[in-house]
Amino acid sequence: MSGKTPMTPSDAARIQAAEAKQGGGGVEKGGFAARAQAAAAQNVASGKTSPGTQGGVKK
């Protein structure tokens, strides 16, 4: 995402779903999906995006 567009909860959910599909239903602790979810939560907490935002900056 190169720092220009903040990670959103919907982005993180898509990443987690793809990783779970590839990994037989589970995701790796501390893996990319977990880091994406943490980044999305931090962006929501800091106001960079909202919980319902899909793929972009909060308007």
Strand/helix succession? HH
Structural class: mainly alpha
Measured as a percent range, the helix fraction is 40-55%
Largest sheet: none
Q: What is the topological layout?
A:
Layout: H1 9-22, H2 32-46
Region (Disordered): 1-59
Biased composition (Low complexity): 30-42
Domain SMP: 3-44
Structural commentary:
With 59 residues, the chain is mainly α. The chain has a domain at 1-19 and 31-48. It contains two helices and no strands. It has helices at residues 9-22, 32-46. Helix 1 packs antiparallel against helix 2 (32-46). 17% of the residues are buried.
Name the descriptors.
59 residues, single chain
Please summarize what this structure is.
With 59 residues, the protein is an all-alpha fold. The chain has helices at 9-22, 32-46.
